[in-house]
Every structure is written in C-alpha cells, then in structure tokens.
Amino acid sequence: MSVNFEQRLNEINAKTRMLTQRYRYVVAQRNEALERLAQANGELAEARRRIEELTRQVDYLRMASAIEAVDGDIERSRKFLSELVWEIDKCISQLSD
Q1: Maximum Cα–Cα distance for the chain, whole Å?
Q2: What is the pLDDT of residues 7-18, one digit of tens each?
C-alpha cells in the first residue's frame, strides 16, 4: 500500500512541477506581450503626433499657397485675406458672447 501511495505522490509532484513550469512560461509570455503592447502603443502615439504635425503643416502650406500672389493675382489674394479676417472677427465675436 505504501508503494502505491509513494507512486501516486510522485505522480502528483511531477504534475505539480509540470503545471508550475507551464504557469511560469505563460506568465513570461504574458509579460513579453504586455511589453510589446506598451511599445506598440508608444509608437502609435508618436505616429499620431507626427500625423497631427504633418496635417498642420499641410494646412499652413495650403494657406500660404492661397495667400501667395501667383502671376500678379493680387486681387484674389486680397479677397482671400479679407475672407479670413472676416471669419476671425466672426469667431472673436462668438467668443465674446
């Protein structure tokens, strides 16, 4: 009877060691995945910041090209600037209310 008990105890110990090893492996994999996720989130935040910066630059360039007098079209540039000033005044008056 004691042989059967010792054999059973050895089986349980072996299974416990196996489960412990598997648990450690899963925990290590989880930690690696969390690190990769944190790195990816950082890269994503940097990419979003860069996109915002480039979008802002595109807007500035569009505005600069619209303002720039091409082929002596000063009247078109003046009209565009007048519209911008009008919109800015409108925004300021709305903020004042």
Answers
A1: 108
A2: 999 999 999 999
